[in-house]
Structure formats: C-alpha cells, structure tokens
Amino acid sequence: METYQQKLDRYLEKSFYPLLPGPTQTFLTGIAPRLRLTYQEFRQFTEIARDLEMWGEAPFEEWFTSHAGTDMDARRKDHIRKNITEAYTRLKNRAKDYDHAPLKRSKKRDKGKIVIKESDKEIFGMCPVASPKTVCCNLKTIDAVENCVFGCSYCTIQTFYHQETVFDAHLAEKLKRLQLDEKKRYHIGTGQSSDSLVWGNRHGNLDALMAFARQNPNVMLEFKTKSDNIGYFLENDIPANIVCSWSLNPPVIVENEEHFTAPLARRIEAARQVADRGIMVSFHFHPIIYYKNWREDYTAIVGDILQRFTAEEVLFVSFGSVTFIKPVLKQIRLSGLQTKITQMELVKDPHGKLTYPDEIKIEKFSTLYKAFAQWHGRVFFYLCMEKAPLWEKSLGFVFKDNDHFEEEMLKHCFTRIDAKRASAAF
C-alpha cells in the first residue's frame, strides 16, 4: 500500500512546488504530512505560494502562519484551509497596490531568434476574439510578423508562439493576392500577432503593407503599438487610409507590467509627431488595470490627450479590460516574473475566459468615457470584446449587432479619410 510520503513525492512534480524558493518548499513538505493534504489541497497551496512570490508579498511560510497559526494538527485542517483560502481571496480581490518598491523585472529582453520563413500559412483572417456573444467591430487582421519582442505580463501572444519571431518571406506577394470586395470597406489591423511598429521596416514589412494600403483604398489599415519607433512614418509618404494607434497605460503599469515597451510620455509624443505629419491617430485604453489610484492616473492621461490633440486628429478611442485564458495564467506562473497582474478577482466572460466582474468594468469604462466628454460625437468611442449590457451601463448606448457596429465605425472613419484625400488633391 502506498505510503503518504510516496503520494507526496508524486504531488511535488505535478504542482508548482519545484519552482518555489527553498524555505517555502521545506515548509510545504513539513506541513503536508501533518495535515494529510490531498493532491488538490497541496496544489492549491503551491499556487498560492507562487502567486505571493510573484505579487511581491511576504514569503508563503510567513503569510501562512500569520493567517493559520502554528498548530498543524490534522483535525484543524478544514479550519486552516478556510482561513488561508479566505485570506488569499481578500488579497486577490482588493485593488492592486504598486506604492511599495517596484516589482523586479528582467534586465534584458528575451529576443529569441528572428527568422524569415517560407510558408503557405494564411496571413489574413478575422480578429481571433470576434464573436456574436459580445459586441465586436468585426476587425480583420494581417499577421505580418509572428511574436513580440515586448514582455507585457498580461499578453496572450506568449502562449501562441515559440521563442522564434517569424517574418513571412512572401508577405508582399501574399498581400497582392488577397481578394477583397472593392465595393466593401474594411478595417484591418496588423497588431494581433506582434506589435505593429516595434520592428520598423525590417525585411520590408512596412513597405509591403503601405503598398497594400495604396492598392486598396477601401481598407483602413491600423498599426497598433506600444513603441515609439515611428521613423518610417516621419520619413516616407504615408497613404491617407493608414491609422497609427497607441495602447496607453499609466507609468506605474508600464514600469511594472509592460516590460521593454516605450514609456507613456514617449508613446504620446510619438503619436503627436505622427499626427503632425497629417497621419490619423487613435488610442486604446486596453487593458485598463484596476489598482489603487487607477482613477486619478487614467483620467490624467485623458487630460493630457485632450490638451495635445484635437478631435479631428483622432479617429477612435477604445476601452478594454484584462482577459485571461487558462493557458496564459499557467504560463505566467511558470515564468515566475514578478507581476501583480493576476492579483484580481476573476469571473468568467461569455466565452469562458477570465476577467474582472461587471461592476469593476462599468466603473472603469464609464469613468474614462466621461473624462472624454468634450470629444463625444466627434471621435468614435467603443468597448472591445464586451457584452451589450456593459455598453449600455458604461457608454449609454450599444449597437444592435456586430455588423451595425462595423458599419458605423467604418462610416465615421472613412468620412475623415475621404476628406483627407480630397484636401490632398487640391
């Protein structure tokens, strides 16, 4: 008959135990036989220990003792587990606090290997999160590059690709072969599989995308970025149907969660320089992170944007939230990098993904939308991947379906684009 120690030996390798600090490992292997922990109970404790380490909290053994005491009698197991679970839930659900020492971050970015590959893989498709279960803009995407050099803690790209960053050897040819309906207008993004601008014109990818935009005047081609690598846009003639968009977060989030990206001030300055060249710009507040002082920090960004840009220079502004799939949560724990991004209350969205509760989302979205009040009716505002009731409670309106959303967004944007073309013709 298998002894408890033999069971415990199996538990160790099937949990996050091997990744934990030595003192925490010693503590866990000490209390497990005394409390007669089951595999699920042991795994739960290792997950809590891993989270505390990543969140910059006290070591698990200290935190555990402060909430459960030192008496590890097996008869107290249910009481101990209840206390630990409740304490962990309270910590997880409260607003993050970045006021203490900054979280540790990698000193160097992991660039991996950059390769050019010949592939029959399709580069054009629907946005991977488009769904009738939420109100979506029907964005189309072009995967010009696969993988990202940045290290944002919440990013899903980390689970899609291996260490290689892949450039398509036949990008230009594939773009020329795309069959689009000339009578239809399209919103196509290039920032789903990588950051759109961080690579510049490496391997001619921007040249190929600009040629595609010129050949397809019915396409609004969006370059979404967290970088300030805008040299190409300042030095070249850019088609009127190009929009450069910046994902914005407060400095404390950039510093702690968006590793190796451009600082907020440099992103906004890059957008200003691009707009000065007559190129349309847009802004994405996505994801909006819920933390202590979030309201003041995000509304300060809005104030800066309103001061530095006119409504006529900005096509659209979007709001979105943190959303996780389970493989991403596992990958974050495996990486072991310090982050507070997972310190949040998680509930399932209409797709079964994990995100903030509705009441927190409504508070975040409505706060930022109200802060942009002077641009209402002049700039196109929308939520990304959210259900209809959240639109109504946050923005005060909602589109009847995704096709109507797409139609209204394209009508707004192409009114600006066509006017720009007309003025350039004189």
Automatic annotation (TrEMBL):
Name the source's superkingdom: Bacteria
Which positions, given as ranges, span the membrane?
none
Q: Gene3D superfamilies recorded for this chain?
A: 3.80.30.30
**Cross-referenced InterPro entries:** SPL
Q: Name one GO molecular function term.
A: DNA photolyase activity
Q: Which Gene Ontology cellular-component terms appear in the entry?
A: endospore-forming forespore
Q: Which PANTHER family match?
A: SPORE PHOTOPRODUCT LYASE, SPORE PHOTOPRODUCT LYASE-RELATED
Its protein name is: DNA photolyase
